[in-house]
Amino acid sequence: MAASSNSSLSGSSVSSDPEDYQPPIWKSYLYQLQQEAQRPKRITCPQEMENRPKYYGREFHGMIPREYADELLAGAEGAYLIRESQRQPGTHTLALRFGHQTLNYRLFYDGKHFVGEKRFESVHDLVTDALITLYIETKAAEYIAKMTTNPIYEHLGYTSLLKDKTVHRLSRGRTESRRVTFQRDEKISSSPLVRRSALKDTPEKQCFYEKIHNFKVHTFRGPHWCEYCANFMWGLIAQGVRCSDCGLNVHKQCSKLVPSDCQPDLRRIKKVFSCDLTTLVKAHNTTRPMVVDMCIREIELRGMTSEGLYRVSGFSEHIEEVRLAFDRDGEKADISASAYADINIIAGALKLYLRDLPIPVITFDLYSKFIQSAKIPSAESRLEAIHESLLQLPPAHYETLRYLMAHLKRVTQFEKDNLMNAENLGIVYGPTLMQPPEQNALTTLNDMRQQKLVMQLMIEHEDVLF
Ligand SMILES: [Zn+2]
Ligand SMILES: [Zn+2]
């Protein structure tokens, strides 16, 4: 397939101005091809076959030679039959006529029929799908190879509106990467004293984080068009993929090109606990998970002087109740003093939420980077290394950690009442926020010291690190 270079399809610039929104124009070419594809023609066996598996019908011809099958199918595009292999008795071959030749596929059955990835209720469906796929992918090979070059995706209203914001995301510290110097004598003067407003109810109801789509193979009922390239999604089943978080429908090949701008639909997010952090904040359009904000707000309201805050554990059945309340009611969950008088229950729920994240706040990818940072002997280089690692965290994780560390710092300011300092908070929070990618008793034990140290340093130096 010689792809012509300099195609008029490629290279056109796409405006992301929401004003330019035009309704997508679905392209019908592949749809027409699907209509043109041959329908299956079942070639039945004239006599009853004794050894016919019960999941095959009269299209089963028993152990006939390949050449004879060829003759039976000759002349009829779309004709098919099943024969038992002569070389490997007990295995079956689907012989199918397409493009004036007989194609032979090893046919499997395990409750569904399949020759490749797609699984079908009936052999007839399998052949229908095969004929569509063969026809389209042969006839339109070049078209398909190029269909992703001029996507309509960015013209679709709901994504272009996000576009502007996405560009500006993370101007916060990554692109401009505040250089923090950690020279001892200059430390205070050079550390930017920033953002002490964290706890006020600032209207932070926006988040510009990147989030990848959560694509799963999907069977569409009725004709569907790809929301990336605007082309028809051909086939009988498993025609494309759908994002289970936002519902975007695209070709499998297009899914690799879709930007990481998934905006989860709240109705698709069933739970709050154990939900990926970025997915949750995107779904709720917040900067941080509301569990973190709400628990911290409650604790700062009535728990800061509570002895052993975060160390003393609350009654686990009540913590479980709080979890259920968040999963059920989201931000309307009642965690006030009238519902749970013991603040350790709220502190316990917050720790449980953080511990149960599918990807910990300090992500698996960066885990060892943080552990290695903690091993650096020089105090300044150590802080610098931690700072570097922090900047690599996904934004939602970074924001959550920043907020939490500012809170824990405030907790330590009440040490004479609550007896909590950066060191014992580090012990409590180390394993909550940091989990090795592969958990085994030995790494856990070996890393405990560093986990604690990373947490302790982040609390103590929260103002310069974040
Ligand atoms: Zn999505
Ligand atoms: Zn597509």
Automatic annotation (TrEMBL):
Predominant localisation class: membrane
Signal sequence extent: none
Annotated localization: Membrane
SUPFAM superfamilies linked to this entry: Cysteine-rich domain, GTPase activation domain, GAP, SH2 domain
Domain annotation Phorbol-ester/DAG-type: ranges: 212-262
Region of interest (Disordered), residue spans: 1-22
Domain SH2 as annotated: residue spans: 59-127
Low complexity biased stretches: 1-16
GO molecular function, one term: zinc ion binding
PROSITE patterns to which the protein is assigned, alphabetical: RHOGAP (PS50238), SH2 (PS50001), ZF_DAG_PE_1 (PS00479), ZF_DAG_PE_2 (PS50081)
Membrane topology term: Peripheral membrane protein
Function according to Swiss-Prot or TrEMBL: GTPase-activating protein for p21-rac.
Name of the protein in question: Chimaerin
